[in-house]
Design brief:
Strand content: under 5%
Order of helices and strands: HHHH
Radius of gyration: 20 Å
Low-confidence stretches: 1-7, 77-81, 93-101
Helix content: 40-55%
Largest sheet: none
Distance between the termini: 69 Å
Length: about 100
């Protein structure tokens, strides 16, 4: 049963999910997903599999909702694993430390 694309745009009996249903599905995907390696495209593909329909037209909603829920998770319950840093801390600090700070002192 690898003919997923043959079922698009809708699997028989399937209908376009509501935004509420998509949000609920995204939330459940995030609970089990590895956030370090998860991409918005992977989430959308998973949602398409779950709901049996193509969701390209909902890409922006899915992307926005994904970011919102990840932020929500980051600020709320962090007891599962180490918290995921919101921003990578690579702010040109390596430049400042290497040459300039030594010569000033």
């Amino acid at each position: 049963s690898s003919g997923i694309n043959a079922e698009w745009p809708l699997r028989p009996g399937a209908r376009m999910p509501s935004q509420k249903e998509l949000t609920s599905s995204i939330r459940s995907i995030l609970k089990t997903a590895d956030l370090d390696s998860l991409s918005a495209k992977q989430v959308r593909k998973q949602l398409e599999k779950e709901h049996g329909c193509e969701l390209t037209q909902h890409k922006k909603f899915i992307d926005d909702k994904l970011m919102e829920l990840i932020d929500e998770m980051g600020s709320g319950s962090e007891e599962e694993e180490a918290p995921v840093p919101k921003k990578k801390r690579k702010i040109s600090s390596d430049k400042e430390e290497s040459s300039e700070s030594d010569s000033e002192f």
